[in-house]
Amino acid sequence: MFYWVLKNILLGPLVKLIWRPWVEGLE
Fold first, then answer.
1. How far is CA 18 from the centre of its chain?
2. Distance between CA atoms of 11 and 5, rounded to whole angstroms?
3. Structural domain of residue 14, as residue ranges?
């Protein structure tokens, strides 16, 4: 569980940076 939380903290901002332009590209 700790690993999952740590992973979200580290990957959270990175995923948002990748996800946001991709979603905007679909629209």
1. 7
2. 10
3. 1-27
Domain count along the chain: 1
| Tokens of residue 25, six digits | 């590209």
User: Taking the complete model, does pTM exceed 0.70, yes or no?
Assistant: no
Q: What does the alpha-carbon distance between residue 6 and residue 8 come to, in Å, rounded to a whole number? A: 5
CA-based Rg of the chain, rounded to a whole angstrom?
12
Task: Tell me what the pLDDT averaged over the chain comes to.
Answer: 85
Segment 3-25 mean pLDDT: 86
Rounded distance between C-alpha atoms, residue 10 and residue 3, angstroms: 10
Structure tokens at 9: 């903290």
